[in-house]
Amino acid sequence: MNTEQLMTLAVNKNGFIFDPENGISYTVNETGLFVLQELQSGLSPEEIVNRITEEYEVTEKNAESDVAHFMAMLRALNLVED
Fold first, then answer.
1. Which of 49, 57, 70, 73 has fewest C-beta within 10 Å?
2. pTM to 2 decimals?
3. What is the pLDDT of residues 27-46, one digit of tens each?
4. Beta-carbon count within 10 A of 62 CB
């Protein structure tokens, strides 16, 4: 997975994200912010699912679903590539 585009994003602790390459801004909830920061740290989606289940009281199935949906959104925005 190519996450190079994610590295250029400016992210604040409140979930505000700015893409300096195209001037578009986004907002994410707490889970989205967690996933984004973990992706920027170099973790894979599978590793992020494990981190979510360790950090939050959520089932693995729900964590997998959340990460899958977030990854689909990032792909749709051309922020990650397979």
1. 57
2. 0.91
3. 999 999 999 999 999 999 99
4. 14
